[in-house]
Amino acid sequence: MKTLVVGLGNPILTDDGVGVKVAYAVRAALASGRVRDVTVTEASVGGLRLMEMMLGYDRAILIDALQHCDARPGSIRRMTLEDLRTISPTQHSACAHDTSLVTALEMGSQLGLPLPKKITIYGVGVENITYFGEEPTPAVARAIPEVAAAVLDELSRSTE
Amino acid sequence: MKRVTIDPITRLEGHGKIEIFLNEEGEVANAYLQIPELRGFEQFCVGRPAEEMPRITNRICGVCPEAHHMAGTKALDALFHVEPPSVAKKIRELLYSAFYVTDHTVHFYALGGPDFVMGPDAPPAERNILGVVHKVGLEIGGQVIECRMRNHHVIQMLGGRGIHPVAGLPGGWSKAVSEEERQEIEEIAKKNVDFALFSLQLFNDVVLSNQGYVDLILSDGYTQRIYSMGTVDENNHTNFYDGMIRVVDPEGKEFAKYHPSDYPQHVAERVEPWSYLKFPYLKNVGWKGFEDGMDSGIYSATPLSRLNAADGMATPKAQEAYEKLYETLGSEKVNGNYTPVHHQLATHWARLVELLYAAERMLELATDPEITDPNVRAPVTETPDEGVGSVEAPRGTLTHHYWTDEKGMLTKVNLIVGTTNNNAPISLSIKKAAKAAIQKGEEITQGALNQIEMAFRSYDPCMSCATHSLPGQMPLEVTLRDAEGNVVDHASQYLD
Predict the structure, then answer these.
(1) Any chain B CB within 8 A of the CB of A21?
(2) Are B170 and B178 in contact (CB under 8 A)?
(3) pLDDT at residue B473, as a whole number
(4) Which of the listed residues A151, B152, B275, B320 has the most CB atoms within 10 Å of its CB?
């Protein structure tokens, strides 16, 4: 199963880059080479561009900052695309300059584009996304290995 | 004083909101856009090597990283006092043209266009790219995606990386263009020209053939007579990558023409207590509040402003499209040049004229015999001190200004990003549109809300100019409050 892991966010905006930092951790762990057919990347885009990135993959796992009244800093929420339709989107999956990921995927599907059959989104509750800095706040930093482990677990389970 | 707020309710911070104040009679007295501030950028940069800036600044924005990369790279040329070889400038402009094609395409089809294709009163859930696809045909969706993907491929090929280019260096570019790549880009540019012509035809068929839309474009609620800013080449034609900054007054007379590094002599920034974002205005006209007219220093820097500030387009088909815009919208020719168009919704049309120019310019550059010259970098030998770099970002003139010590470590940074230029005119536009849409004593309808948003949307403002994205379906809440803060009316809708 060809899988794409995308860490979303801005790595120089404190907690905003949590998705990117998780992607780095996943990439480092995968360097040992146990799991095949996995591409790990980072992006700061949503909407159409994010949909376009996923073309040709069977499965996509997105990791993004989540700012929501219910999401404590560092809390982790695993979501499906269906959740994204009903709950508020994560920080980066939508794009103010084109459209939401859900709309973009709907369009891709209507056009018959090769979209992943399964999309999972890990949202990490954030605290500070308005101050420039390379280090996340402590609660968010603590969540990074935990999310990375969850993503790795998901990757290894499905290839068994 | 009553108060109306258009506010995203799923996001408590990080995004803009629109505040509308009503007077005792229930008429719109004032309207403001409030944009939250990202803090600490200068502190983040100070002490780092200046060469990192084109890579750091393209992280500021997930929407136009290419624009920041280019302005940052040009600021480094100036900082290190090095003149890039001609081919390096052409490669940069080639990448930048491909970027413009993608950016303007997505705005028209996903953001600006739906208001016209679906109609301003259509339910918000239909006013998106899916609605356009339903109405115009599935094929158009495929064309939009294909256009974006082929140009992203060019950006990746030339810029070394897809989303955040890395190839810009002081004095040049890190990667030459091979003949094979050149041929591929030439074919892509040809397709872009066709696509731009198709898009203008679509605008003609959907918008201009509908008298109701033409009346809307020409209506007073979307008209403001302000100064226009844009970058021009030696013939006063629009240029996105390089040139002089030209400002014309509301009548179209040249008010200023200056090198981008002279911006502090022409642009001042006003601070208002209710907004973190500053309000740039023309220093030599002065700040007269949120008013339009010859005496107010408010200027805009949008696709329409760029066309207004120029005497024409540098490529033949775009020039034709430019003339059609001015002829259709009642501009007069004075001394051989068209007087400015101040109908703000025409910005969508101007964006398509620019799309065609970007496509034609890309084709010119892709067929330039010099473009495959391997000599893409000039050596850096001078001591750095201070440098300004500027480009036309899709959302307005973008200026990067860096100061360093003699080792090239940053001591000070100033950026004026595209949307910041338009901060005052956006507030002005919202006020005008709100005055036209909200009648005293009447309920605020979805249509009225959208008419206010249309004023805002034509600027395509980059809210925080960060990688931040609004939730795709941003529920907007408009609350009408009386003088004591009690809610007397309520409405909500989606921004997407």
Answers:
(1) no
(2) no
(3) 33
(4) A151
Quote the pTM value. 0.90
Burial class (CB in 10 A: 0-12, 13-18, 19+), B431: buried
Q: In this structure, are residues B312 and B234 in contact, taking their beta carbons and an 8 Å threshold?
A: no
The tokens of B231 are what?
A: 């970058």
- Residue A71 tokens, joined: 């999401």
What is the predicted ipTM? Answer: 0.85
pLDDT tens digits, B400-437: 999 999 999 999 999 888 888 998 999 899 888 888 88
- Please name the residues between 82 and 111 in chain A that touch chain B, using a CB distance below 8 Å: 88-89, 91-104, 106-108, 110-111
Q: Nearest CA to B16 among B400, B486, B466?
A: B466
At residue B463, the pLDDT reads 56
Contacts of B367 (CB under 8 A, 6+ apart): B186
Answer for the pair B231, B244: CB distance below 8 angstroms, yes or no. Answer: yes
For chains A and B, CB pairs below 8 A equal 151
**Per-residue model confidence (pLDDT) at position B467:** 29
Please indicate whether, in this complex, the C-beta atoms of A12 and B44 are within 8 angstroms of each other.
Answer: yes
User: To which H or E segment does residue A52 belong?
Assistant: helix A47-53
Minimal-distance CA residue of chain B relative to A134: B44
Contact between chains at B145 and A133 (C-beta distance less than 8 A): no
Q: Which of residues 46 through 105 in chain B touch A, CB cutoff 8 A?
A: 56, 59, 62-63, 65, 103
The residue ranking higher by pLDDT, B366 or A84, is B366
- Report the gap between the CA of A119 and the closest CA in chain B (Å): 17
Please report the DSSP string for B393-427 in residue order.
ETTEEEEEEEEE-TTSBEEEEEEE-HHHHTHHHHH
Least confident of B141-150, B201-210, B414-423: B414-423
Model pLDDT for residues A20-56, shown as the tens digit of each residue: 999 999 999 998 766 779 999 988 777 888 899 999 9
Question: Are the beta carbons of B467 and A10 separated by less than 8 Å?
Answer: yes
Q: How far is B256 from chain A (nearest CA, A)?
A: 32
Q: Measure the CA–CA gap between B332 and B334, rounded to whole angstroms.
A: 6
The residue type found at B477 is E
Out of A92, A110, A111, name the one closest to residue B469 (CB): A92
